[in-house]
Each structure stands twice: as structure tokens, then as C-alpha cells.
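Input record, target 12 of the design panel.
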């Protein structure tokens, strides 16, 4: 049940009367989920983003295979690209989150 930014998880029976009772006010008895890990919080947003990226990657894979490129070549290329992107992201995040003074001390 969504009430503003609060999300309450329903753990009861999936029968009509039970669901109606929960929706009409029974949800107030259930403690809201933590905003950070909930579906509208930052972690929920990141989970959705990762699922979207996965869907795009699968669609891209299928389109390239349909063009006649061997699946092994497409898979290997996508894996290498994914690893390079991951390493680059880690380096950029480390560089951005490290202060200038810390970087100068390391030199």
C-alpha cells in the first residue's frame, strides 16, 4: 500500500475481503518500510535503473545476433565492454570522492 512516500507491505492472504480490509485502513497497523530501501528511495531507484540497463543489454544482444554475428562473439564483446565500463566507473568515483589534498599527498 502506498501512502505518500510511505510504503507498507501486505503479508496477508490474497483473498478479496482481506485485501479490501487492508486497503480501507488496515494498512495503518503495518509499519512503513524504510524509505532508503523502499521502492521510491534511492536504492529502489538504482534497482530499477539496473533492471532497465539489463533489459536494454538483452535487447541489444538479440538485435546483433539477428544481424548474423555469432552469439559467442556478441557475448564476449559485451562482457569485455561491461568490465571496462565497471573499472572506469570505479576509477572515476574514487577520483571524484578523493579530495585534492589527499591526491597531492599520494604523489
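The sequence produced for target 12 reads:
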Amino acid at each position: 500500500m502506498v501512502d505518500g512516500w510511505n510504503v507498507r507491505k501486505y503479508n496477508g492472504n490474497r483473498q478479496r475481503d482481506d485485501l479490501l480490509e487492508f486497503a480501507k485502513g488496515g494498512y495503518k497497523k503495518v509499519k512503513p518500510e524504510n524509505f532508503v530501501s523502499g521502492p521510491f528511495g534511492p536504492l529502489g531507484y538504482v534497482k530499477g535503473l539496473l533492471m532497465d540497463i539489463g533489459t536494454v543489454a538483452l535487447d541489444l544482444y538479440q538485435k546483433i545476433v539477428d544481424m548474423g554475428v555469432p552469439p559467442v562473439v556478441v557475448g564476449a564483446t559485451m562482457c569485455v565492454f561491461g568490465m571496462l565500463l565497471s573499472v572506469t566507473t570505479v576509477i572515476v568515483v574514487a577520483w571524484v570522492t578523493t579530495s585534492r589534498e589527499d591526491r597531492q599527498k599520494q604523489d
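DSSP finds four helices and two strands in the chain.
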